[in-house]
Amino acid sequence: MVAQADSRSSLQERLDFIGLDGEARQRLKKMKPFIDKAISPALDTFYNAVRANPEARTFFRDETHLAGAKNRQVAHWGVIADAEYGVAYENAVRAIGHAHARLGLEPRLYIGGYALITEELIKALVDQNRTGLFDRSGRREDLAASLAILVKAIFLDMDLAISIYLEELDAQRRTAEAARAEAAKNQKHALDALTEALHRLASGDLRTRLTVDVAAEFEQLKKDFNSATEELERAIARVAVASTAINDGTAEIGQAADDMSRRTEQQAASLEQSAAALNQLTSAVKRSTVDAAETANRVVTTRKEAEISGDIVKNAVAAMNQIEKSSSEIGQIIGVIDEIAFQTNLLALNAGVEAARAGEAGRGFAVVASEVRSLAQRSAEAAKEIKQLIAASTAQVMTGVKLIAETGTVSEKIIAQVAEIDGGVAQLANSSTEQSTGLAEVTVAITQMDQATQQNAAMVEQTTAAVHSLRHQAEELVETVSRFKIHDVLPTAGKKTERGERTAARRSAQLTDGNAALAMEGGDGWREF
Q1: Which of 227, 221, 215, 209 is nearest to 498 (CA)?
Q2: Helix axis angle, 22-30 relative to 63-82, nearest 10°?
Q3: Which end of the chain is more exposed for a tag (fewer CB within 10 A), N or C?
Q4: pLDDT in tens, 162-194
Q5: Please, which residues have CB within 8 angstroms of residue 190's CB and are 6 or more apart in sequence?
Q6: SS3 content of the chain, % helix, strand, coil (to 5)
Q7: Phi-psi category of residue 255: left, alpha or beta, with phi > 0 → left and psi -120 to 50 → alpha
Q8: CA 44 to chain centre
Q9: Which residues pair with 521 in a beta bridge?
């Protein structure tokens, strides 16, 4: 009520200041038929200019929108011509100002539009004056007075609408400043809380959370900060666990690397000794190979000589068989001789008998027979001795044949064994050669293994140094992570802070029926120009 009283007081002051008193209003009322007739063509001129101006054209959707705006404009000019500057007029003008402020219609376009309408109304008024609407005697004075009243009414309407437009802008400015002040206050409160939390966070306290109440526009920041610190605490906790595990692991790896280094050195030394021993063994095997080859040659020679000895024994056996055969033949001959001696002895005996019978005549024959018998006896004895000798010789020959046969058998066995020895020695020589070749290859492989082991030993030393360096870094990491303060028991994973989606509310100016000057909402309030 106070605002309305002030507004009416301000309106009355404007009316008094520009001289729109009761008499002037009565003259304006008399001009209503003229205004009702002239306003439509004047508005046509205005809206043609609107159609030609891209900036002004954006305030209207289409021709229907323009036609509706023109009709409401005609109605408003009817209110102006009524010259009743009361509550209805004031509310209508106030609606105009609010509509202009809401739509963003700058005063220059509003004033420009009224200038076009005023121009057309003045032209129409002057033309009407020429047709004799006024008395000739007072035509000029009446025209001047009518023009003055019309211009005052137009300027009053513009003054009120623009003043309300500026008041609306000022109110919006004050509202915006209050909102900015409130936002600045809320922002400072939120920033102070965030600064304190960041200070605690910078000191290593990852348990820090924003717990103070903040404005709605900073609630998402609070949630995001708490979510970020919670995730950071989880990450640092995992890093702490991992760094401890890494430290323990690197310690074990370092110990294992040291052990491996020592074992590698021992292995390298053992391989070096093995290589030296293998070289000696290779040399010994080479010598054995040479000795085996020489032995094989000797065995071949021995085999040949044994085969020759076997042939000789066979020949000796054959000769002994011939001797045995000759001894048998000699025994037979001795038997014949013994038989002859026996027959001779019988003949000599018979001859002695016959000589005894002959007496003296056969005495000489008896002597001969006696000699023959004596010779036969000696021949028989000699044959007996020879037979005994031949029997003894035959027995000895049989023994010799038997021994020589046994010697032949032994010689054959010896030859067979020498042949087997020859084969074994040959295989031994081949095996020695193969062993020598294999040992040479093994020696090369051992040498390569020795070189590789030496390289591995060097790499193990480098790895050991790297592991010790990594362990030192892991210890530093553990020490660094231990500076952060975290909860002993973290919240269970999987329940994450929900982050709301940020949405920006946008206002879109709804294009509703209006005109270039004013528009009424619901029949009571103005919405558009």
Answers
A1: 227
A2: 130
A3: N
A4: 888 888 888 888 988 988 888 888 888 888 988
A5: 214, 215, 218, 221, 222
A6: 85, 0, 15
A7: alpha
A8: 75
A9: 525
- Please say if the pLDDT value at position 340 is more than 50: yes
Taking the CB of residue 472, how many other CB atoms lie within 10 A of it?
13
Q: Average pLDDT of 398-414?
A: 76
Instruction: Tell me which residue has tokens 């390298």.
Output: 268
Beta carbons within 8 Å of 72's beta carbon, 6+ residues apart: 513, 514, 515, 518, 519, 520
Q: Which amino acid is at 405?
A: A
3-state SS assignment for residue 525: strand
Query: Does the predicted TM-score (pTM) go above 0.70?
Result: no
Encode 66-129 in three state secondary structure.
Answer: HHHHHHHHHHHHHHHHHCCCCHHHHHHHHHHHHHHHHHCCCHHHHHHHHHHHHHHHHHHHHHHH
DSSP at 514: -
pLDDT category at 417 given cuts 50, 70, 90 is confident
Domains and CATH numbers, the chain: 2-190 (1.10.490.10), 270-476 (1.10.287.950)
Dihedral angle sign, alpha carbons of residues 346, 352, 356, 359: positive
